[in-house]
């Protein structure tokens, strides 16, 4: 069989190692996974109850337009219902955007290292990918601007950036947006929006009034703790969304995801609890890094990238054998770093103890 040329040499996404696999491989009873920026506190009880009620509907196709969650999200973010597009995770919204805008002969601009799926999907569509290195872990917006030409279709700003956790502030983002040609889509990927505490983090939703070339991505996978249900969304201009809708699969999000996400939205106490715990956990890691004079990037997400001054895979394997799964920076463009998802206080303490042992070894 002859697959698309673009697929040759492309590897599938490498996720964090699954817990069950690690238990078997190393004969462990307890395994802590802090590798995929999942919520260590699970999800809201409201979401679980909603799913139980919806179990009677499994035989029915979901509502393809996702009307119920659409109504709730539009009220929550304060936009019109037709300014939203729902995806099987925000990953799928990235795919839809690439499918709708990119072809051979076009290009797309993103930071490097950043979230892998911008490049991955662009490559499949045959577009050229222009990656602009981060400067000190932060998007080089001027460098990205310089890469835009008449064939550019999408510019990606991962904010905060995965894997560095750094962010582009409101002033920087506004100035950047003002300089982008109006026929180039700017995507602000805000997967960690709920965790952000920086006061100068951009409020992007109000900018939609001025910029019809802006698209904001959010998800229920991270702070809302619903990663397994695969639901995320894009917020943008109504006319633009209407144009790209045909590139969306008819039943791409499920009834269970709709009801759980709607219920989870109503439990902002849970989100606030997770946000506060995340900052306390982040402080545990900051303190550890300072004690050991390890470089790290201050993070607005629920993860931290730490320079262990040795190959990331070595630290990854050391922790793995001891029942802790993190991400090695080697696969993320930071070869001597590891990326750790901030867990519960006791999970954080457990990993910090192992890291201390590794350093003193
Ligand atoms: C996790 C993540 C996503 C994708 O999340 P979904 O589970 O597909 O909604 C998108 N962007 C970034 C930067 C992420 O870290």
From TrEMBL:
PANTHER family according to UniProt: HISTIDINOL-PHOSPHATE AMINOTRANSFERASE, HISTIDINOL-PHOSPHATE AMINOTRANSFERASE 2
Family the UniProt entry places it in: Belongs to the class-II pyridoxal-phosphate-dependent aminotransferase family. Histidinol-phosphate aminotransferase subfamily.
Q: Summarize the subunit comment.
A: Homodimer.
Name the chemical reaction catalysed here. Answer: L-histidinol phosphate + 2-oxoglutarate = 3-(imidazol-4-yl)-2-oxopropyl phosphate + L-glutamate
Span-the-membrane segments of this chain are: none
Modification N6-(pyridoxal phosphate)lysine, positions: 222
Q: Name one GO biological process term.
A: L-histidine biosynthetic process
> What Enzyme Commission number(s) does the record list for this chain?
2.6.1.9
* Molecular-function GO terms, alphabetical: histidinol-phosphate transaminase activity; pyridoxal phosphate binding
Q: In which pathway does it act?
A: Amino-acid biosynthesis; L-histidine biosynthesis; L-histidine from 5-phospho-alpha-D-ribose 1-diphosphate: step 7/9
Q: Which domain of life is it from?
A: Bacteria
Give every Aminotransferase class I/classII large domain span. Answer: 30-354
Show the SUPFAM superfamilies listed in the entry. Answer: PLP-dependent transferases (SSF53383)
Task: Give the species this sequence originates from.
Answer: Anaerobacillus alkalilacustris
> Which UniProt keywords are listed?
Amino-acid biosynthesis, Aminotransferase, Histidine biosynthesis, Pyridoxal phosphate, Transferase
User: What are its cofactors?
Assistant: pyridoxal 5'-phosphate
- Short name of one Pfam family: Aminotran_1_2
Q: Does the keyword Iron apply?
A: no
Q: What is this protein called?
A: Histidinol-phosphate aminotransferase
Q: Which InterPro entries match?
A: Aminotransferase_I/II_large, HisP_aminotrans, HistidinolP_aminotransfase, PyrdxlP-dep_Trfase, PyrdxlP-dep_Trfase_major, PyrdxlP-dep_Trfase_small
């Amino acid at each position: 069989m002859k697959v698309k040329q673009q697929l040759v040499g492309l590897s599938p996404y490498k996720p964090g190692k699954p817990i069950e696999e690690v238990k078997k491989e190393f004969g462990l009873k307890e395994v802590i996974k802090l590798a995929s920026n999942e919520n260590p506190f699970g999800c809201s009880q409201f979401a679980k109850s909603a799913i139980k009620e919806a179990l009677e509907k499994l035989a029915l196709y979901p509502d393809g337009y996702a009307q119920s969650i659409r109504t709730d999200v539009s009220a929550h973010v304060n936009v019109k219902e037709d300014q939203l597009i729902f995806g099987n995770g925000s990953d799928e919204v990235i795919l839809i955007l690439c499918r709708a805008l990119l072809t051979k002969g076009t290009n797309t601009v993103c930071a490097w290292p950043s979230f892998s799926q911008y490049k991955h999907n662009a490559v499949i569509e045959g577009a050229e990918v222009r990656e602009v290195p981060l400067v000190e872990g932060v998007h080089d917006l001027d460098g990205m601007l310089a890469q835009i030409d008449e064939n550019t279709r999408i510019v990606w700003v991962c904010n905060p950036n995965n894997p560095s956790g750094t962010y582009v502030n409101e002033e920087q983002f506004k100035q950047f947006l003002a300089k982008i040609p109006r026929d180039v889509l700017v995507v602000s990927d805000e997967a960690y929006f709920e965790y952000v505490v920086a006061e100068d983090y951009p409020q992007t939703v109000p900018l939609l009034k001025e910029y019809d070339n802006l698209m904001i991505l959010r998800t229920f996978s991270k702070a809302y703790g619903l990663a397994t249900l695969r639901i995320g969304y894009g917020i943008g201009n109504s006319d633009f969304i209407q144009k790209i809708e045909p590139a969306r699969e008819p039943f791409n999000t499920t009834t269970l995801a709709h009801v759980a996400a709607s219920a989870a939205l109503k439990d902002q106490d849970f989100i606030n609890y997770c946000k506060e715990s995340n900052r306390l956990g982040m402080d545990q890691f900051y303190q550890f890094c300072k004690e050991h004079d390890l470089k790290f990037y201050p993070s607005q997400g629920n993860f931290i990238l730490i320079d262990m001054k040795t190959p990331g895979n070595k630290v990854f394997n050391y922790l793995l054998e001891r029942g802790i799964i993190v991400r090695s920076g080697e696969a993320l463009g930071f070869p001597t770093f590891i990326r750790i998802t901030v867990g519960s206080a006791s999970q954080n303490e457990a990993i910090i103890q192992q890291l201390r042992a590794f350093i003193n070894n």
